[in-house]
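Hi L., both proteins are below.
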Amino acid sequence: MQLKLGDIARRLDAGLEGDPEITISGVAGLREAGPEDISFLANPRYGPEVSASGAAAIIVGEDFGGSFSGALLRVTDPYAGFLAVLKEIRPQTRPRPAGVHPAAVVHPSAQVHPTVALGACSVVEAGARIGPGSVLWPGVFVGAGATIGCDCELHPGVTVLHDVRLGDRVIVHSGTVLGSDGYGYVSSAAGHEKIPQLGSVVVEDDVEIGANVAIDRGTLEATRIGRGTKIDNLVHIAHNVTIGEHALIVAQVGISGSTRVGSRVVLGGQAGIVGHLEVGDGARVGAQSGVTKSVPANETVSGYPAMNHDRARKLNAHLRRLPGIVDELKRLQARVVELEREREHRGERIR
């Protein structure tokens, strides 16, 4: 699709510095953009690349003070503005399957809405329910008594085990398992006896779950994922965990059992949280952090063990200086020994 720069400016309510008749037919990053592309600057660290960009126009913040030979569109949020333009110029047009593939297997007692699309080798077991407009790509398994809401999309190879409940507009990517048994055993001299995992998993509306994620069912109640939460690839969420609304959980995060994660929490990549803790609303946990105690609401923590981010930065700065400090300490110790020997040689008494 082609758009005039003036039309883009009006749709974004942007301040335009340049020719409104310029035609935009593509979107690209600052380095890759050509003479018919629009780009954006959301992170100040890439500011030096603006002047060298070949883009026809760049979406920038209202306070941008750099130089650029092309057109500028000034908005409050450049990333959101670029996303809006991207959706218009390059709308997603993935083919959507329709109907039930002859190789799909649906139990007679399952309730599948007529508008549902079931791919080849998908399986829907007894008592499961799938709401209007949902798409199950090939190889999806839906266990007995599971519920999938309206307009959901389950990518190839997703496993939704028995009694798991998905809300509306939930997206689950390939290889993810929802409702696997929690890791619970009673140890004795005879070995490790498995604790039955009798709960379920509840995923609320508008959640997106990445590829190869494992979310365990609760021991007695439900592991719960709040509305609007977005989970990246390779995340493990253990039994009885509760995650609030609109949380962001980045790749390879591990959350141990019975931990409560609040709303709008951000967990950076590879962060690990031990069990039975609480991460308050709006808290932020840095990448590769090890959370060993509860985090207050709106606190930012990092490091291992995780602590206030500013304190962790100071500690890391001191640690980087440690080799030099040790060398200086050795030098001072040697000087003290030297001074003591000099005093002894002069016959002075050392207290």
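That was the first. Here is the second:
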Amino acid sequence: MRKAFIAGNWKMHKTVSEAVDLVTALKGALEGVEDCDVAVCPPFVALDPVRGSLEGSTIGLGAQNMHWEEEGAFTGAVSPTMLQGMCDYVILGHSERRTIFGETDEWINKKLHAALSHGLLPIVCVGENLEQNEAGETVAVCGGQVRAAFEDVAADRAVEVTIAYEPIWAIGTGVPAHGEDANDIIRRAIRDVLADLYDEDVAEAIRVQYGGSVKPHNVVEFLSQKEIDGALVGGASLKADDFSEIVKKGLAAHLGE
């Protein structure tokens, strides 16, 4: 069984002091939780303070984005060398980066290679918008994003990557996908594609999260599905009680308890 992995993407929320308060509360709420990888992804300015606050905890730390170049004239960007040793994970290709900031499949692939070469564990996001979903293009769109992201990535490095299936129409809307539907899409648009790119063993080894309006009341619906190994949580990760409940309920569902 793949180990459960639940991460919180704080997006552009929390000042430094608020971020420290939140992880301090999470440390207490999640103490003793085992058999599940847990991570928080605060804004860049809070990474170092949060890192210090997480000492002695099993909670991992992730960045929300990065550039693929190690240095250069890229005002406002953060490089993989800056994140190396600072955090464990990095989110790549989130739909907000793709749609609002114009990041392309080619960019995501470059970032994936850079993250892996600098010891960072990528969480690569894929997902379709509402128009594509209603047109029956979900598998083609998501499968295409997977193929593009993993281009020229060796099998032994591919297994270090987590994929987050996040239907764009479900992010922040309060209208999540149905668990069975998300499970089916992950099988056909992600694992089958990975099996074609590599083999079935690699496809089965890579963890896949679901993201999009995950809450304490619906996390069991997703984590009880065979193909779903965790969640990339947005708004609900901003409250210690909600996020810790998601972790505990999600882990129990993943383990079949």
